[in-house]
Structure formats: structure tokens, C-alpha cells
Design goal:
The chain is α+β, with helices and mostly antiparallel strands and 149 residues long. The protein has a single domain, classed as Sufe protein. Chain: A. It contains 4 helices and 3 strands, in the order H-E-E-E-H-H-H. The protein has helices at residues 4-24, 72-85, 90-106, 129-144; strands at residues 37-43, 48-57, 60-69. The chain has a 3-stranded antiparallel beta sheet with strand order 1-2-3. Helix 1 packs across helix 2 (72-85), helix 2 (72-85) runs parallel beside helix 4 and helix 3 (90-106) runs antiparallel to helix 4.
Amino acid sequence: MSTSADRSAGLAALYQERILDHYRHPRHKGVLERATGVHGEKNPLCGDDITVSVLQRDGVVIDARYTGIGCSIMQAAASMLMELVRGRTREEIDLLSRRFDEMLASGEPEEALGELGALAGVAGFPARHKCAKLPWRALLGAIEHRNNG
């Protein structure tokens, strides 16, 4: 018979595996040649450094990529985030960003965030919140600082 603690431990292990998978095998990492917006963010306290490039058309993110170095939390968050935002508008991304912040405050996974829900456990480590939020800041900056159309 499985207890609540057993299920909780199993879920934590699954989430940890998702984070490590995105860290070891990042998705959408690299330079986006036709970017309409590019923005970089750094966390000098821990060394995380990320630049996000987006291609937007008619207010929709068509493609998003990132480059940078940093801890496993930052890199996994960036990989998961680049997948999540494709096909979404700025308004949808703003809403998801708020939900991500709420998830970090509560520690409860948010279904709308897809794989980013694996980062719910970061809630227990306030010093790592900046690591998880850095890709969001770079993404929102890239969307805001558009080069053209």
C-alpha cells in the first residue's frame, strides 16, 4: 500500500529527473538568426548568464532560443520555457509568468506550465528562485525589446 509520503517522494524523484534531463539535453539552445528581439540577463551572485532570442510574427512567438551558462535549475528552466512559449502571445506569456511566480511561492505544481511544473520544488529553496526566474526575465525582455515586426 502506497502512502502519501511514498507518492510525494516518487513525484519529487520524477521532477528531479525532468530537470536533469533538460539540463543534460537542453531543447532550443542556440542562436536564433532571424530574431526580432534579443535580451540578456545575469545573476552575478551565482554566475548564471542567459540570452534569449525570440522570433515574433503578428504578436505571437514563433520561435525562442537561448544561450548561456549557469546552474542546472536555470538551464532546465530555460529549456522548458523555450518549449512552452512557442505559439503564444505576450498576454499569454505574462499570465504564465505570474503563474510561475505563484508556483514558486506555493510549491504546488501548476498544470498550465507544462514541464516547468517540475520546478515547484524550488519553492523550498528561496535562494534558487532567481535561478528559476532568470530565463523568464530574459524572455520578457526579448519580447519587449523587439527589433522589428
